[in-house]
């Protein structure tokens, strides 16, 4: 009996490895190899490469065109805005084009935006979204594409395979009907849902691709700021960022991360505009306008297996788990008390109905009227210094499938 159990577990593990290996070989879009990277860089300035067109005709054609785009990395508007970027913003995009338009509208109004590099990382691919980004003319723009999107794998892992166990099947029933992942429910007895796991996969892949494979990031020494498509930035975003960097250098050299936004909205913005706080990084508070350095990125890379096996489908709660566990010293964050990033989305992963982007636009315009007197503060002051410690939380599950663990870990192994 014991031998049969060991044998079954070994076969299951072998199956997982074969799945991941097949994915890597079939797409070739996970990362650009070292040889590919040198070839692209030595071929000349990456900015000058001809535009890469996305082919939406069929899934194989689409996958091939996305690989080519990730490989060639054509930077739009590079000739118009020469030189290295002063700030890199990475936007994770799914399928909310109206909110994406709002974000781009706010970026266009931001002071000194011409010095930015905007990287849009997509896990949903459509001509509409592509056209929205292509119309940007005010700074350098690069689009990258998550190669393991469920859109590209509609009926096989990492999408939802029809042979997978239904979410709420008991393990006994799953073993009886021999569905594919019967041995691997999450901590709460539920089986994976592809639509739920995708965001964490995309975030982890994007983190590595940006820091390791984006040509224009080579030599970049600043922070990378991570946004989402339903964010909206204030006009003094870059001014505030530079002030925060100066404050960190002079008054908080041990701060690991920055949070240029918070979830409090804009009440009392004028009073709070020039105030910052130091504290432990927390998912529910500091996942908006989050900025990390290359040094912190390497700390996260060292925790890849912990990130990829922790049973929580949220990248940010997983990050909080790492802080003070795998990363022995809890991550210290420098937080804007007057948020420079607003959350406009009224729908998302768990709410698909009754999305009202027109209401979001109206609310943003009204809120911005209250910020005028507080923008562009000449200097920053410390408003509080909380104890930096590990903040435990109850994991949310949704990440128990060993196929997800293996695919997630493969992103770092390819570097």
UniProtKB/TrEMBL annotation:
Key words, A-Z: Disulfide bond, Manganese, Metal-binding
GO cellular component: Golgi membrane; Golgi stack
GO molecular function terms attached to this record: alpha-1,6-mannosylglycoprotein 2-beta-N-acetylglucosaminyltransferase activity; metal ion binding
SUPFAM superfamilies reported in the protein's UniProt record: Nucleotide-diphospho-sugar transferases
Binding site residues for substrate: 92-96, 123, 198-202
Domain of life of the native organism: Eukaryota
Pfam families listed in its UniProt record: MGAT2
GO aspect biological process, one term: oligosaccharide biosynthetic process
Cofactor requirements of the protein: Mn(2+)
Disulphide bond pairs: 165-179, 252-255, 303-326, 308-408, 347-355
InterPro entries: GlcNAc_II (IPR007754), Nucleotide-diphossugar_trans (IPR029044)
Binding site for Mn(2+): 230, 343
Name this polypeptide is given: Alpha-1,6-mannosyl-glycoprotein 2-beta-N-acetylglucosaminyltransferase
Source organism per UniProt: Betta splendens (Siamese fighting fish)
Taxonomic placement: Eukaryota, Metazoa, Chordata, Craniata, Vertebrata
